[in-house]
């Protein structure tokens, strides 16, 4: 038992020390006793020295064992303590890593200790300081409202450990979440970034604070106003009133108004207002209200909102002086006398107390009688007698309704259709004394103009709807103001969607399935939404996904709007391509024909020259005599050959012009000489047909610059044509005059003329004109004239009417072909100017 007790004692460090001390004490005591030999009684040991020595050794062994056990125990405890310290350090490092891994500023305070910064890992917030020292100066980087809210929260945290959570804003409009709490006797303050929904909450809170400030400011302003203002909830209860309202209803304060629901308006007035507000419209009326002990006139306005109604009552000042009725300011009369609107003021006894000049002229009443202050009823009766009031079924009832307005708290406008066709807008206004001021506005012209405008709008609408082009007018706000049915059809859009006035962006998005070229749409969008003063119109084409071709155009309008037009030209372009291809084929065929004729003409010229030469040789008497029949045949051969040679020469001339190889030999031309030379060629034919030639040359047109041979050819062909289509005994006129920088030749005949339907082709090649006259020819004369005139830089016109003759006018430059004038191009069809009409003198 004693050994067990010793063992338990040895397990504790202080027990081991006690046992070791006791053992050493016993050893020392026994050693001292043995050494002295006396003075120390140990009855338990006896006298034997051996026993004493054994006990001593035993004590030493026990002490050594106990010491060893104590040392081993201490070493084990030290190892355990080191392991615990290592684990604590590892945990501390992990905790520090976790704390620093989150973007935050973490601060804590302990009692009687300075501030400690646990983490400063928050960055990227606008206005956040870059060091803990600057961070603690909250007033320097937080906005005043946030700093003012944070300070008492921190004070409460230190004083009572009261936690808080705030959203604060920096001076650079950054937002932070500030959280304060206590833990183990420490005060902890943490700042974190407001992200995600917390950022939205921060903005909402900031907006809420701003709105709250605005509401407080608005209510303070409304409280300072001298006019009653009140708010009413959706259920009709008054929720807020200003001080002027409290004074108007003589309440002790707002609380009494809220509790008792003290109303400023009468029940009937509130019902009238409620009916208007129920339609979602604002209510405005002039009402008599009891304020204090007085009955005053107020303009009452009520505006409905989502969940409330705001109302205000503005007192209408009296227009009359307190000295008595009819004593108005002088400017009142003079001003109203200058306006075009008829004005009449009646007092509460229905007497006319004022009228302006426009009122007298409107009703054409005697001024002296009006100044006698007749009653409203008397004026109505007088106007009825004169036949100037509207025709009504029951005049007495109509008059009674008008006069009842004096006893009614409110009046309404009316429209009078007078017997003379005029339309009047009658607008009564209640006066503060209970009377009424009437305004008579002549709306006749306005209504007529409105009808005209409506008619024009309808015509415009019908016109637009009949157009095949899609028309869209966009206003300055970018919204569609006007469109026609063709626009909806071209872009396959529902008319209902277009009638909702979509923005140009929405219109483009709805049209993209058919055409999706961003460049074109952006340009059209810019033309509509641009605010530049220098807008220009432009046009273009769109090849849409459905293989249709659309011509578009954008045109700025004077009022700032923009007109867009879209035209489906798919079929037109298809026909245009077909016509171009056909025209190209015709031009090519015509050129081939001309080339063939030119080639053949060259080939015919050589044998024809031989025929003419041999015929002339046969006609020479040297060859031998010919009988009459042979001479006749030989003359026919010679004449036919010469005609054929002339035709071939004409063809070659046209071929040279078409090829652009003909050069003019410009020189001074004597007009009389060139006319005489041209006449020589037709003199024999004219004599044979008994035709007279009349020549006239103006003094200022004696000469000009040109190619004499070609001018002679022009005149010869014109004279030859005139001779061919003239009747025996007719007169052919050839005149020349000067017209500014042009020399004008005119050849006129009295022949059969040309039908109107044939005028357009008289200058075509191989068109010989009217065959009824028995004329046969190749039809190249006028074609050559046209080509040679154009080669000179001139023009040719033709006037003709059947049986009245033909007049051909050639205009040539007096100083030669202008340098900038284009030479005659290869023949591609008629281009001369033609006109049909009677022969001019």
TrEMBL record:
EC numbers, comma separated: 2.7.13.3
Residue intervals of the Histidine kinase domain: 599-816
Pfam families for this protein: HATPase_c, HisKA, PAS_7, PAS_8
Entry GO MF terms: histidine phosphotransfer kinase activity; phosphorelay sensor kinase activity
UniProtKB keywords: Kinase, Membrane, Phosphoprotein, Transferase, Transmembrane, Transmembrane helix
Gene3D superfamilies: 1.10.287.130, Histidine kinase-like ATPase, C-terminal domain, PAS domain
GO annotations of cellular component type: plasma membrane
Catalytic activities: ATP + protein L-histidine = ADP + protein N-phospho-L-histidine
Residues passing through the membrane, by range: 49-71
Region entry Disordered, spans: 813-841
InterPro entries listed in its UniProt record: HATPase_C_sf, HATPase_dom, His_kinase_dom, HisK_dim/P_dom, HisK_dim/P_sf, PAS, PAS-like_dom_sf, Sig_transdc_His_kin-like_C
Name recorded for this polypeptide: histidine kinase
């Amino acid at each position: 038992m004693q050994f067990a007790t010793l063992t338990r004692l040895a397990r504790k460090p202080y027990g081991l020390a006690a046992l070791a001390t006791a053992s050493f004490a016993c050893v020392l005591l026994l050693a001292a006793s043995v050494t002295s030999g006396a003075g120390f009684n140990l009855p338990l040991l006896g006298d034997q020295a051996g026993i004493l020595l054994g006990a001593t050794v035993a004590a030493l062994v026990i002490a050594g064992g106990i010491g060893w056990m104590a040392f081993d125990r201490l070493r084990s405890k030290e190892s355990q303590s080191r392991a615990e310290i290592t684990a604590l350090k590892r945990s501390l490092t992990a905790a520090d890593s976790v704390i620093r891994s989150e973007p935050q500023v973490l601060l804590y305070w302990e009692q009687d200790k300075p501030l400690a910064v646990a983490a400063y890992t928050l960055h990227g917030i606008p206005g956040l300081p870059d060091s803990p020292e600057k961070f603690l100066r909250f007033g320097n980087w937080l906005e005043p409202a946030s700093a003012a809210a944070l300070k008492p929260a921190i004070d409460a945290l230190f004083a009572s450990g009261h936690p808080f959570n705030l959203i604060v804003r920096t001076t650079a409009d950054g937002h932070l979440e500030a959280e304060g709490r206590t833990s183990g006797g420490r005060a902890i303050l943490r700042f974190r970034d407001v992200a995600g929904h917390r950022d939205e909450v921060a903005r909402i809170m900031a907006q809420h604070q701003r709105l709250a400030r605005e509401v407080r400011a608005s209510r303070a302003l409304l409280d300072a106003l001298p006019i009653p203002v009140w708010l009413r909830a959706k259920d009709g209860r008054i929720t807020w009133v200003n001080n002027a309202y409290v004074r108007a209803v003589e309440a002790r304060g707002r609380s009494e108004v809220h509790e008792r629901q003290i109303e400023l308006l009468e029940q009937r007035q509130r019902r009238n207002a409620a009916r208007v507000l129920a339609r979602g419209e604002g209510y405005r009326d002039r009402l008599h209200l009891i304020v204090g002990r007085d009955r005053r006139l107020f303009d009452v306005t009520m505006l409905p909102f989502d969940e409330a109604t705001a109302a205000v009552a503005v007192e209408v000042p009296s227009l009359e002086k307190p000295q008595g009725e009819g004593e108005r300011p002088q400017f009142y009369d003079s001003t109203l006398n200058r306006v075009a609107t008829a004005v009449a003021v009646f007092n509460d006894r229905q007497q006319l107390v004022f009228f302006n000049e426009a009122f007298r002229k409107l009703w054409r009443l005697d001024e002296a009688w009006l100044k006698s202050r007749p009653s409203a009823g008397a004026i109505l009766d007088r106007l009825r007698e004169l036949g100037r009031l509207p025709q009504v079924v029951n005049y007495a009832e109509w008059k009674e309704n008008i006069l009842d307005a004096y006893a009614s708290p409110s009046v309404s406008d009316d429209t009078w259709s007078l017997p003379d066709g005029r339309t009047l807008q009658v607008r009564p206004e209640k006066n503060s004394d209970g009377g009424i001021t009437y305004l008579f506005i002549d709306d006749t012209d306005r209504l007529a103009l409105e009808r005209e405008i409506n008619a024009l709008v309808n015509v415009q609408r019908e016109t637009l709807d009949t157009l095949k082009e899609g028309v869209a007018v966009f206003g300055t706000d970018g919204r569609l103001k006007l469109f026609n049915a063709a626009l909806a059809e071209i872009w396959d859009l529902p008319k209902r969607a277009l009638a909702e006035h979509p923005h140009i962006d929405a219109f483009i998005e709805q049209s993209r399935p058919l055409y999706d070229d961003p460049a074109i749409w952006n340009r059209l969008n810019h033309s509509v939404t641009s605010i530049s003063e220098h807008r220009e119109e432009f046009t273009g084409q769109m090849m849409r996904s459905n293989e249709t071709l659309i011509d578009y155009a954008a045109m700025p309008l004077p009022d700032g709007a923009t007109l867009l037009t879209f035209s489906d030209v798919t079929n037109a372009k298809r026909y245009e391509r077909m016509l171009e291809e056909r025209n190209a084929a015709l031009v090519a065929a015509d050129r081939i024909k001309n080339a063939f004729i030119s080639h053949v003409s060259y080939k015919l010229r050589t044998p024809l020259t031989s025929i003419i030469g041999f015929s002339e040789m046969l006609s020479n008497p040297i060859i031998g005599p010919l009988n009459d029949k042979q001479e006749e045949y030989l003359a026919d051969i010679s004449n036919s050959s010469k005609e054929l040679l002339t035709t071939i020469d004409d063809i070659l001339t046209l071929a040279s012009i078409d090829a652009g190889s003909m050069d003019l030999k410009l020189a001074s031309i004597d007009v009389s000489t060139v006319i005489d030379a041209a006449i020589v060629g037709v003199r024999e034919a004219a004599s044979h047909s008994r035709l007279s030639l009349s020549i006239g040359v103006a003094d200022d047109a004696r000469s000009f610059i040109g190619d004499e041979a070609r001018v002679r050819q022009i005149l010869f062909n014109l004279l030859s044509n005139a001779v061919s289509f003239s009747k025996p005994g007719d007169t052919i006129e050839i005149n020349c005059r000067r017209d500014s920088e042009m020399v004008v030749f005119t050849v006129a005949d009295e022949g059969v003329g040309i039908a109107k339907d044939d005028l357009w082709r008289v200058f075509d090649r191989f068109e010989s004109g009217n065959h009824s006259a028995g004329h046969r020819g190749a039809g190249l004369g006028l074609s050559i004239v046209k080509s040679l005139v154009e080669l000179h830089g001139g023009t040719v016109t033709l006037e003709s009417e059947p049986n009245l003759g033909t007049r051909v006018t050639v205009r040539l430059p007096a100083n030669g072909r202008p340098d900038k004038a284009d030479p005659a191009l290869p023949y591609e069809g008629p281009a001369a100017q033609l006109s049909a009409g009677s022969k001019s003198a």
